[in-house]
Amino acid sequence: PLVPVELNRRVLENAEVFSVQAHKFLTELIELHTPRTRHRSVLLPSGEVLLIGGHDGDGQPLALLEAVSPMSRSSSLGGLANLEVGRIDPEVLSLEGGGFLVLGGFDAAGAPLPDAEWLSADASAHLGTSPIPAAAHVTAAPLPGGGALVVLGCVEPAPPGDDDCDGCGCEASSAALWLEPNLSVYPIEVPPVHRP
Predict the structure, then answer these.
(1) Cβ atoms within 10 Å, residue 174
(2) What string of H, E and C letters represents the secondary structure of 39-91?
(3) What residues contact 95, with CB distance under 8 A and at least 6 apart?
(4) 14 by DSSP, 3-state: which?
(5) What's the CA gap between 40 and 142, in Å, rounded?
(6) What's residue 181's pLDDT?
(7) Residues 84, 102 contacting (CB under 8 angstroms)
(8) What is the edge-to-edge ordering of all strands in the sheet holding 49-52?
(9) Which residue, 13, 30, 51, 78, could crosslink 66 as a Cys pair with Cβ 3.0–4.6 Å?
(10) pTM of the shown model
(11) pLDDT, tens digit (0-9, with 9 covering 90-100), for 115-125
(12) Sheet harboring 137-142: ordered strands across?
């Protein structure tokens, strides 16, 4: 069964800065333009932190990207691309040579989302979307040349009455894909899953 977004989780309205030198969070908070939770963050070449996906206080998936600057103690939506699809708990991969791959995640009803979205190194451009199946579990690793190895778990729907894969409504199955920055997707043979 699908599990809807938990609305009782606190949505973050501020970002905190951690000082490596002081080994603590600084007291001055940075107000976010878009309060969110269940998002991901990555470091941009500018030193800003990019917030990707998550959901707002109403449980709606966010497609807006937001940059948080620890230096100026500010956040901004300006000059950033948007995702094509709002994603709660997305997987985000920093790619060799710059850029990011955003994939997986869930919609507001808890259904896994398909496709992988490519962002430029500064997140100012959405470079395209690679078609991949929806999966309850997604993990990825960067490959030389800016591509990615993507492993999808629990891809196939479970037969009626059988909930075999961590309560996600799918059976234990997996797929592996090689994604290239030109949006090409190449399947990789995966041996069958054997469960004890």
Answers:
(1) 16
(2) CEEEECCCCCEEEECCECCCCCECCECEEEECCCCEEECCCCCECCCCCECCE
(3) 101, 142, 146, 147, 148, 181
(4) strand
(5) 17
(6) 93
(7) no
(8) 40-43, 49-52, 66-69, 74-76
(9) 51
(10) 0.85
(11) 999 999 999 99
(12) 137-142, 148-153, 174-179, 185-188
Going from the C-alpha of 8 to that of each of 11, 34, 102, 152, the distances in angstroms are 9, 18, 26, 29
Considering only CA atoms, which of 139, 165, 168, 161 is closest in space to residue 151? 139
Contacts of 138 (CB under 8 A, 6+ apart): 91, 103, 104, 105, 112, 150, 151, 152, 153
- By the 10 Å C-beta count (0-12 exposed, 13-18 middle, 19+ buried), 59 is classed as middle
Closest CA to 147 of 81, 99, 80, 190: 99
| % of the chain residues with pLDDT over 90 | 68
pLDDT at 161 (0 to 100): 54
Residue 98 is encoded by which pair of tokens? Answer: 């710059």
Q: Is the pLDDT of residue 171 over 70?
A: no
Whose CA is closest to 64, among 75, 56, 52, 76?
52
Dig out the tokens for 94 from the structure: 């920093």
3-state secondary structure of 145: helix
Strand partners, 138: 152
Query: What are 126-136's pLDDT values in tens digits?
Result: 999 999 999 88
Cα 150 to its chain centre, rounded Å, is 13
